[in-house]
Design a protein that fits this description.
The complex is a heterotrimer of chains A (246), B (342) and C (278).
Chain A (H helix, E strand, L loop, with lengths): L4 E6 L5 H7 L3 H9 L1 E5 L12 E5 L5 H13 L2 E5 L1 H5 L11 H9 L22 E3 L6 H12 L11 H7 L24 H4 L16 H10 L4 H12 L7
Chain B lengths: L1 E6 H14 L1 E8 L2 E6 L25 E8 L7 E2 L6 E6 L1 H15 L5 H9 E6 L24 E5 L3 E6 L2 H10 L3 E2 L2 H18 L11 H6 L5 H7 L7 H5 L6 E7 L5 E8 L20 H20 L9 H5 L7 H10 L1
Parallel strand pairs in B: 2-6, 6-7, 7-8
Antiparallel strand pairs in B: 1-9, 1-10, 2-3, 4-5, 4-12, 8-9, 11-12
Chain C lengths: L13 E10 L4 E8 L12 E6 L3 E6 L9 E7 L3 H7 L6 E8 L12 E7 L3 H13 L7 E7 L8 H9 L4 E6 L9 E2 L16 E6 L2 H13 L7 E4 L15 E2 L2 E2 H4 L2 E3 H4 L7
Parallel strand pairs in C: 7-8, 7-11, 8-9, 9-10, 11-12
Antiparallel strand pairs in C: 1-2, 1-6, 2-5, 3-4, 3-6, 12-15, 13-14
Classes of the chains: A alpha/beta (246), B alpha+beta (342), C alpha/beta (278).
């Protein structure tokens, strides 16, 4: 069987998700035995437009990105969105809540006129996306799971239950009991509740579950002292592109 | 009933002897709460705790457990897997033992499940009477203050010493081999009864406003009660109540394949009936689509469905669900009392 | 405690070899299988197996054939999820895992000497075919036989060759209908219940066996009752999520019943008042 040809691309992002792929280390070598990586700017010089699977990191933040993404979509048999910028729009969508001209000047200063920008959006706002690997950054194990599933010809099974499930299994004290607040109850699991396990709280980087009880979550956050503005901010941090945050 | 006595000053020696000879799992503090974990030194073992974050069911039905190992090549052998090395589970409260006893019956009835049963058989369970009551516990009202079986040894903290009840011959052998014992007198036995009833009395502050044996009947008339909808409107479908529950044992089964794509394992992992896709099938049909139907299912399962199988309520009153539920709708005491009110 | 041995793990599949594959419709294939050990599957019509492709997963599938002397059995499978897609990609000679058979079965013995009214909706015909074929194999053991089959549209009709055969037989009544007509369709159009006005049954001696999508049951049961068929002579097969097949994993629970063990075939009187069943 011919090895599937795999390419990595990025749009507006920190490229941290591709770094996670490189950080697979030993496992990466095993993955590489099963596939041919033909394009991976962060890890190699070669480049090819002949590929079967495209992993695309980053959000679409300007009109001209759309053409490039459509080109990738046309070349790829399978397009996988890599990380929350690509799957949700992620934190790049924070700029959508400001005047775009203001944002452009804030970032580019007196060179603003040289750079185009428009409200940020996830990949699937521009092209059809086959599979999403959520996270900021992605979870390496989940990436490996998706690669394996694709190689076996099956649809990767992405969790549709909240982080609380994994957090309880990790035997963490509930963040709310520690006097903080947390987006875990509405956020899609798959990270093993790593942030809570490390003493922080869930920021919601993997996006919302399919049917989040946003009203109840807002009420829980309010009960634990967050203002309306804070609550909105909690939802907007990663899922600003979704209806829930508007 | 056979009772022995271990001086507190001799207790560390006993634990150390166990550690020298067995894998010992017990209760340890974590961030102001308690969890079960590996005990490497006597001073790590905590016996005065109110309640652990999740129940010791994780030792018999692990959150993720490989059932089978296989190669992806045709004709290859499929091997059932299990880790059944003997170990000691030290410090299980009676309500959690009651839950384990229920799980034992579930996994043994009908087609027995050797993956569970062999792990269970490999464990020496050392129970301990509670010295503190968690704020949401109501085990006394659930008749789980004491248990008569399901433990090899049962410890009670008497202040200067522990009284140890011998539950099984395995327990007796363990004790005789590794502990410095004194005979317990009838006075000690009486004192143990007093201590138990004192802690039980504290726990009784929470409970049902009606006899708990009425719960199955109550549920029979409550299917269409407005409370399901009203309470479940706040349900986050986060599954916390399922995961922390000592009598929840539902699981999902899935295949995991190694990166070489040549070998894999079939694993089971905890599932929860509150989760959105719990009853959804591949065709897209979801047999419990609404939050209310899932929320109601949990209470019916604990208070009615499993009652018909176990002849006992499948709730032991640990209160973990109640303290873990952020919108505070999972507490059986609150819910059943509200249902009773009508 | 008497410990069951791990070798007896109820999760351990037996290997079966695919001996024949037939494309039934665009999305359905029929797989004929034989256990590699040579032993027969040993099922009774109405039971199901857990089918595995190692590395992909496992799913419950109804057995579609009558128990056969040559030891083969048939599974008709719609391509819908990962497991069914994987099996659709296999070829004759490939091996798959089989656990079971599991669950209750149709009243093959009880209905002997009695009349049978089979009502199948869509892929409900897959499990029902097992019983129908059993009855046709033992035709003299049963009285009058009526088969009603309804599909959403003509292209979703399965086992076409057999449907035609049944239609041509003198010793059974076969009627079918589609909810929505399509190219070349000249038969009945309308939901399956519309067929009931075309049949006559002797209710006291009729067993009505119903398998179809969840939404169908209520309406078909009303029709069966209207014909005077006693409740206890109505049987149906329920679909639920099933992972273990042995009443442990909890997914298929309806009240105190586990569909994988106490079902999938239920007598109507045993479940008519159970919430969530129908």
């Amino acid at each position: 069987m011919e090895k599937p040809r795999v390419a990595f691309f990025d749009f507006a992002s920190c490229e941290g998700c591709q770094l996670q792929v490189i950080n697979l280390e030993e496992d990466l070598l095993k993955v590489l035995e099963a596939v041919d990586v033909v394009t991976f700017r962060e890890a190699m010089k070669e480049h090819s437009d002949n590929y079967d699977i495209a992993f695309v990191e980053g959000a679409i933040t300007r009109k001209s990105d759309e053409e490039r993404l459509k080109g990738i979509r046309a070349n790829a048999g399978v397009l996988v969105a890599l990380g929350s910028c690509a799957t949700l729009g992620g934190i790049t969508c924070l700029k959508n809540f400001h005047d775009q001209e203001y944002v452009r000047k804030l970032v580019y200063g007196d060179k603003a006129s040289h750079y185009e920008t428009y409200p940020s959006r996830p990949l699937n706002a521009v092209v059809p996306v086959d599979f999403k690997i959520h996270g900021c950054p992605i979870n390496r194990d989940e990436f490996a799971m998706v690669v394996k599933a694709l190689l076996l010809g099956k649809n990767p099974e992405i969790n549709n239950f909240p982080v609380c499930v994994e957090c309880k299994m990790a035997e963490n004290i509930c963040v709310f009991e520690k006097g903080m607040t947390c987006m875990g109850p509405v956020t899609r699991a798959g990270c093993g509740a790593c942030c809570v396990t490390e003493g922080s709280f869930c920021w919601g980087c993997r996006g919302l579950v399919d049917d989040p009880n946003a009203d109840s979550q807002r009420e829980v956050l309010a009960t634990h002292g967050l203002s309306v503005q804070d609550i909105l901010g909690s939802f907007r941090l990663y899922t600003g592109f979704s209806e829930v945050a508007k | 009933m056979e009772l022995q006595l271990i001086e507190k000053s001799d207790h560390d020696l006993f634990v150390q002897n166990l550690i020298n000879n067995y894998q010992v799992e017990g209760v340890k503090p974590k961030d102001g709460s308690f969890i079960y974990g590996s005990i490497k030194a006597p001073e790590e073992l905590c016996l005065d705790f109110d309640c652990t974050l999740i129940s010791p069911k994780k030792y018999f039905l692990p959150p993720k457990e490989a059932l089978l190992q296989f190669a992806l090549t045709p004709d290859s052998e499929i091997t059932p897997l299990i880790e059944n090395d003997p170990f000691i589970l030290f410090g299980v409260h009676p309500y959690d033992i009651k839950a384990i006893n229920q799980m034992d019956r579930i996994f043994a009835r009908g087609v027995p499940d050797p993956h569970y049963l062999q792990r269970r058989e490999a464990a020496l369970v050392i129970g301990v009477d509670p010295t503190a009551v968690a704020p949401r516990s109501f085990w006394a009202d659930m008749g789980a203050s004491t248990v008569s079986e399901g433990f090899d040894l049962m410890f009670t903290d008497m202040g200067e010493h522990f009284i140890v009840e011998i539950g099984t011959n395995r327990g007796r052998n363990l004790l005789e081999e590794h502990a410095k014992l004194k005979p317990a007198t009838t006075d000690d036995a009486r004192e143990r009864v007093r201590i138990r009833s004192r802690i039980s009395h504290i726990c009784k502050k929470r409970g049902f406003a009606f006899p708990k044996r009425d719960i199955p009947k109550l549920l029979e008339h409550s299917w269409n009660n407005f409370l399901w909808e009203e309470q479940a409107s706040k349900c986050l479908s986060c599954g916390t109540c399922n995961i922390v529950c000592p009598t929840c044992y539902c699981f999902d089964v899935e295949d995991h394949v190694d990166l070489d794509l040549a070998h894999g394992e079939r694993i089971r992992r905890w599932d929860g009936c509150l989760l959105q896709d719990f009853a959804a099938v591949a065709t897209g049909e979801n047999f419990r689509e609404t939050r209310a139907s899932r929320y109601r299912h949990r209470f019916f399962r604990k208070g009615h469905y499993l009652f018909e199988i176990l002849d006992d309520l499948a709730c032991v009153g640990c209160g973990r669900c109640a303290s873990g539920c952020l919108p505070d709708i999972a507490d059986p005491v609150n819910l059943f009392n509200k249902l009773k009110e009508g | 405690m008497n410990q069951p041995m791990l070798e007896d793990s109820p999760y351990l599949p037996k290997w079966a070899e695919i001996t024949r594959i037939e494309q039934l419709t665009e999305s359905e294939k029929l797989f004929e299988l034989r256990l590699v050990s040579g032993e027969p599957l040993g099922h009774t019509p109405g039971q199901f197996v857990e089918l595995s492709v190692m590395g992909i997963g496992e799913a419950p599938i109804s057995v579609s054939s009558a128990p056969a002397e040559n030891g083969v059995f048939e599974l008709a499978i719609r391509k819908i999820g990962n497991l069914t897609t994987a099996i659709h990609g296999s070829v004759t000679g490939d091996r798959v895992g089989i656990r079971g058979p599991f669950g209750t079965h149709f009243p093959v013995e009880e209905a002997k000497g009695k009349d049978l009214l089979f009502v199948a909706g869509g892929i409900g015909l897959i499990p029902l075919r097992s019983f129908i074929r059993f009855v046709l194999d033992h035709r003299d053991d049963y009285g009058e036989v009526i088969v009603l089959f309804g599909a959403k549209n003509p292209s979703e009709r399965i086992f076409l060759y057999e449907l035609e055969q049944w239609g041509n037989r003198e010793d059974i009544v076969y009627l079918d209908s589609v909810d929505k007509s399509g190219p070349g369709w000249q038969g009945n159009v309308g939901v399956i219940t519309t067929l009931f006005s075309k049949i006559h049954v002797d209710p006291s001696r009729t067993f009505c066996i119903v398998v179809g999508p969840p939404v169908m049951y209520r309406f078909v049961i009303l029709e069966a009752k209207a014909k005077g068929i006693p409740d206890r002579q109505i049987f149906l097969s329920l679909e639920r999520k099933m992972k273990c097949g042995i009443g442990k994993c909890g997914h298929c629970q309806i009240n105190h019943l586990y569909v994988c063990q106490d079902g999938p075939v239920f007598r109507y009187t045993d479940i008519f008042d159970l919430e969530e069943a129908l």
